[in-house]
From TrEMBL, chain A:
This is Dynein intermediate chain. SMART domains: WD40 (SM00320). It comes from Pelagomonas calceolata. GO terms for molecular function: dynein heavy chain binding; dynein light chain binding. Keywords: Cell projection, Cilium, Cytoplasm, Cytoskeleton, Dynein, Microtubule, Motor protein, Repeat, WD repeat.
From TrEMBL, chain B:
It holds the Pfam family Robl_LC7. The keyword Transport applies. One of its GO terms (molecular function) is dynein intermediate chain binding. GO terms for cellular component: cytoplasm; cytoplasmic dynein complex; microtubule. It is found in: Cytoplasm, Cytoskeleton. This is Dynein light chain roadblock. It comes from Pelagomonas calceolata. Signal peptide: none annotated. Keywords: Cytoplasm, Cytoskeleton, Dynein, Microtubule, Motor protein, Transport. Its main location: cytoplasm. One of its GO terms (biological process) is microtubule-based movement.
Length: 573, 97
């Protein structure tokens, strides 16, 4: 049986298109049935087969393209005028209005509309139909478990990822945030990139897609703050130590900038607008150990300068965090790179330049202080965040009155809640925000919220509602979160309870300090008593020494005599 | 007849807390107002659009119906708008404290 078919094609037909046509059925070859191979057939035993009662599914994943929307608007102010009337011409407008008022239709309509409005107005004046019936009713949120939800994410639009080093809320409401971006790592490989972006951004919280406004400082900003008195102006401190002033009404370029020779020599870690008549004054700290005061109208040189040191000849400390509260306008609290807290009171400049140094032993942080923040309701108390703990201090005491337990990751920033006296937030290196609620318990974190995988770097709570929390991370992403009512609404008598708790801790710390002083005094006294016996001891030791010297001399004499004897004996022989 | 209109307006203005009274044509042209020019323009432009929209809403919901009145309550003011096919009467009243 050979099935072969010789197929020939003429060269000229190569590449010609094929023409198909109908044809009758033709049998080319048939294979008849046969028993020939029947003996070779072996039934397979056992036969394996699988069945499945479950329907089979396959999984497939796709991600839709990110749709970037842009909000834009047009303003239509003057319009609807007939073609022949020019609305900018007062005479025309006047004429048109006169004509309109003469219209019968107009008169009739107005007469009809008048009573409708009157009725509503009388109603408004008589009863308040929008009256809040249950005003003053405190809702108890405490039974509700604390929670938080993410609302939006603001990403640094630049390719090179920089840390969101500070976040500042618009002072007049949770509408905008100012975020500064820079790289604080020492000799980060990104620095070798010549095109390291310098921009920092103002974000509108309702529009996470594009920044509301970009600021272009000479060097990346490490801190940025709105002026509470004139909210269109900001002050920022740069990585190279410059302080610059911005006016959002004009442009994103600095309106005024300090000069290198008279600025900080290290990154400006924090800057604050301070209370002044003109509202133009601000203060800045840096790790070069200086604290400088500026007038934003003339940033040519600082108004005032102060070196942060522990004493006259003491060590210079690098300021890494600062807080200024308008209710305590003369006192600044500064956290330093060395973990020591300083309070600066300019009214008291005679004593060590007005610097009060807090505990330098057990009370200080084991590393730099990343955040320092006064309690918003009890301004005498403030919190510092450094190493693995957050500590609460009282202005007049050298040691912290409360310390959180050691967290399982480094803390990177923190702030008090602006509405609840006993609540504060801390951010951690492992991307978690921990919420402490001292009104609920002091030994454990009240609520933990995972924001992302990378380390967090900054946090801010909006000042008006206290419900919104913005958290920045090292990748330049700022997450906007909303905390639940129980974490934002002040609880019944919380203010007084927290006040009492802080007072109690202060008293305890004071007592401990007093006891330590007593103990030290007692020890000193005991030392004084043992001092007398020491004299005796000394006398004894002297006697002993003399005796030893005598014995030594005797021994040497004896040896000498013996030698002499030997010598004489030898001579005699 | 014109004096009757005047009278009506005067009566409206005499009520407590009235900040402004405007008459605006359906096209958004302010005809009468006792507010300053800028505010008049803004109110006229915004509310005539809102009135058109509100009228459409009512019409779509029930084509036999007609918008009769609407008020906007804000924290500071209440804006009352009495619409008519050709004119709008707008009154801005301050909230009673």
């Amino acid at each position: 049986m050979e099935v072969a078919y010789l197929y020939t094609k003429v060269r000229s037909e190569f590449g010609k298109q094929t023409n198909f046509s109908d044809q009758d059925t033709r049998i080319l070859h048939t294979i008849p049935q046969t028993d020939e191979f029947e003996d070779d057939y072996i039934p397979r035993n056992p036969v394996c087969t699988t069945v499945d009662t479950c329907p089979t599914y396959s999984e497939h994943e796709t991600n839709t393209d990110r749709l970037v929307t842009k909000a834009s608007s047009i303003r239509h102010a003057e319009g609807g005028w007939p073609k022949d009337v020019d609305p900018t011409e007062p005479a025309d407008v006047q004429r048109y209005r006169k004509k309109a008022e003469k219209d019968d239709d107009y008169k009739a309509n107005m007469k009809a509309l008048g009573p409708i409005i009157s009725r509503c107005m009388r109603q408004n004046n008589t009863i308040d139909i929008y009256e809040e019936y249950f005003a003053g009713e405190d809702r108890d949120w405490s039974s509700e478990p604390p929670s938080a939800k993410g609302l939006a994410v603001f990403r640094d639009p630049n390719e090179i990822k920089r840390t969101a080093t500070s976040i500042n809320w618009h002072p007049e409401g949770p509408t905008k945030i100012a975020v500064s971006y820079s790289i604080l790592n020492f000799q980060d490989p990104k620095f070798s990139n010549a095109r390291l972006p310098v921009e920092s951004y103002i974000w509108d919280v309702t529009n996470p897609n594009t920044p509301d406004q970009a600021l272009t400082p000479p060097s990346p900003l490490c801190c940025l703050r709105f002026n509470p008195k004139s909210t269109d102006t900001l002050v920022g401190g740069s990585y190279n130590g410059l302080v610059s002033f911005y006016d959002l009404r004009k442009s994103g370029a600095p309106q005024e900038c300090s000069v290198i020779e008279k600025s900080h020599h290290d990154p400006v870690y924090d800057c604050f607008w301070i209370s002044s008549k003109t509202g133009n004054q601000c203060a800045s700290v840096s790790t070069d150990g200086n604290m400088l005061w500026w007038d934003t109208r003339r940033l040519g040189e600082p108004v005032d300068a102060l070196q942060l040191s522990t004493g006259k000849d003491g060590a210079v400390l690098g300021g890494s965090a600062m807080d200024y509260h308008k209710e305590v306008p003369t006192k600044y609290v500064v956290g330093t790179e060395q973990g020591i807290v300083l309070a600066i009171n300019l009214r008291n400049r005679k004593q060590n330049n007005g610097i009060a140094v807090y505990d330098q032993n057990h009370g200080k942080h084991h590393g730099p202080i990343y955040a320092i923040h006064r309690n918003q309701t009890h301004t005498k108390f403030f919190m510092t965040v450094g190493d693995w703990t957050a500590r609460v201090w009282m202005e007049d005491l050298k040691t912290p009155i409360m310390t959180t337990k050691y967290h399982s990751a480094y803390l990177t920033s923190g702030c008090w809640s602006s509405t609840r006296a006993g609540v504060f937030f801390v951010t951690r290196m492992d991307g978690i925000v921990d919420v402490w609620d001292y009104f609920y318990r002091q030994n454990e974190v009240a609520y933990t919220h995972k924001v992302g995988d990378c380390a967090l770097s900054s946090i801010a709570n909006d000042a008006t509602t206290g419900r919104l929390l913005s958290v920045g991370d090292v990748e330049g992403t700022v997450a906007l979160m909303e905390v639940c009512d129980s974490l934002a609404t002040p609880q019944h008598n919380e203010k007084s309870a927290i006040g009492a708790m802080l007072e109690r801790e202060t008293k305890q710390e004071k007592n401990l300090e007093l006891r330590e002083r007593d103990l030290r005094r007692a020890r000193d006294k005991a030392k004084g008593e043992t001092g007398e016996t020491e004299e005796e001891k000394e006398a004894k030791a002297q006697a002993m020494e003399e005796q030893l010297r005598a014995v030594d001399a005797d021994f040497l004499n004896m040896i000498k005599e013996a030698e002499d004897d030997e010598a004489t004996a030898a001579a005699e022989e | 007849m014109s004096s009757e209109v005047e009278e009506t307006l005067k009566r409206i203005q005499s009520h407590r807390g009235v900040k402004g009274v405007l008459i605006v044509s359906a096209d958004g042209v302010p005809i009468r107002s006792n507010l300053d020019d800028d505010e008049t323009q803004t109110y006229a432009a915004l509310l005539s659009q809102l009135a058109t929209k509100a009228r459409n809403v009512v019409r779509v919901l029930d084509d036999q119906d007609e918008l009769a009145f609407f008020r906007i309550r804000s924290n500071k003011h209440e804006i009352m708008v009495a619409p008519d096919p050709e004119y709008l009467l707008i009154v801005v009243q301050e909230n009673v404290k």
